[in-house]
């Protein structure tokens, strides 16, 4: 059995800061070595920004928690040096089956779009994800990059000031204080930072409980996602079976509201339930069991002066649709390049308010989607159940009803429509999917792919268009990537970036979102677009 | 603009209404509710257009 989550990964070690006569000041401190804190720290270190990560624990996430990672986060994690390891270890699946009552009503094949380096999504235990991120942080350290993870360092108090933040930290060897120019709070859904700063976290609690179990079994179930509405083994409720690596299966069983959580969690109560579901003759071992009540909520603002919130500390969604970890990775992807520009004096602090604007938009989209899924899975009134059951009944015979079945909409990246960083779309006939604000879709280019060529900096992507090799504005360099539509024989480049246009020039942000596009190079307009994209026209 | 038709448009309206009642005959309250729900979904799919569906939802809210 896999017990990676019981091994300390970043054991406590005494830091020089603990013996310093006055508090040591750090450029950036991250609270929380969960997936989001680690992603933030790696992104900073890759940009040579010194970062200290504090975590009250010394191990990876207990239990598998997030298991479904979508394409866009995998692309971001590739930029952070962990995406390929995740895909290698992860499980890919295409077929989903939907059951209602005693019968299968239909099955679907995801048929993912071709021409992307990363799959539509993979299943992988969160502890592997965190383990790969810790390994990546260690590799960066070995290269001399300024990243440090301090285990069993619990933040107990936070003092906010105009130009810095002070942190009181408890360790096995007593307390000490440090200061940070910038603090990124990735301390999870119960965020102590949020509490210590007296900030709100409003939203909706769903009056329902789910039993989440990871079981290890040598069953020959195919690698598919099975979802049950109102099955005989869990009447009136739902259930989900999903495969992870190492012969581990994720089982979600809806339990309802009036239950005794501690009772339900006991193996003597869990095992008979699972036997009903899997059949008496299937041998399995329980790896992890937990009971969850779902909430959909977010902070009103993700930036409070020098404190920036990212991941679950800023927003929480129900697990249907796998948007928690996936959206947190997109938070840090949005935040870190902006923070670096502000720290270097190349952009005004107001650029960080666009982190708030863009990621609040992302969080609202995720909350909306996961609320809708939850409302479908657990109807809140008699009539919503009648309608839900009607959809399921019809889905068996009529194809039209299948798209209405909502057992979780898989996470797709957010387009920052209406962001103050976008310039107006000036590419006539350009594809909708690459309008300003969109994340760049990948494209195969010979042996490689487009996205790795766009990473970390501003890029001027030209397709069948002339332009200088690059330009600089206020110390921010832009490098040209010159492509011809014929560079991609599959024509995905033309389909995704030209549409009906003959040529195109794109200004692409360091997080691979489109800032501006037009049919030809125009120096004044692209300089203006760069100023806008770096918060100078706010 | 939505294309919701609120002027008479049902062919042989008396026959249709009789068919609708007949479809519910012999059904319990729960079965009738389920039948209505399936029917709404089938009709909604026939309309398809978001604006028209929205206008229909609004029109149904107004009673007289
Ligand atoms: C059952 C379940 C299933 C899920 N499935 C999915 C899925 O399929 N896909 C998906 O994308 N997401 C999923 N999620 C959500 C996902 O697990 C979270 O979104 C993700 O872990 C959030 O990461 P985080 O880094 O923001 O917070 P966390 O992982 O909660 O990390 C917070 C860290 O902060 C540390 N910390 C807290 N307080 C302090 C303090 N005072 N001082 C120092 N350190 C502190 C903690 O020790 C912890 O390491 C699921 C969640 C659950 C519960």
From TrEMBL, chain A:
Q: Name one Pfam family in it.
A: FAD_binding_3
InterPro entries from the xrefs?
FAD-bd, FAD/NAD-bd_sf, RIFMO-like
Q: Where is the FAD-binding domain?
A: 27-364
Q: Does the keyword Transmembrane apply?
A: no
Look up the record and name the cofactor or cofactors this protein needs: FAD
| Domain of life per record | Bacteria
GO molecular function annotation: FAD binding; oxidoreductase activity, acting on paired donors, with incorporation or reduction of molecular oxygen, NAD(P)H as one donor, and incorporation of one atom of oxygen
Q: What keywords appear on the UniProt entry?
A: FAD, Flavoprotein
Report the protein name in the record. Answer: FAD-dependent oxidoreductase
UniProtKB/TrEMBL annotation, chain B:
Which Pfam families did the record assign?
A: DUF2783
Which InterPro entries does UniProt cross-reference here?
DUF2783
Which superkingdom? Bacteria
What protein is this chain from?
A: DUF2783 domain-containing protein
Species for this entry: Rhodalgimonas zhirmunskyi
What is the organism lineage in this UniProt record? Bacteria, Pseudomonadati, Pseudomonadota, Alphaproteobacteria, Rhodobacterales
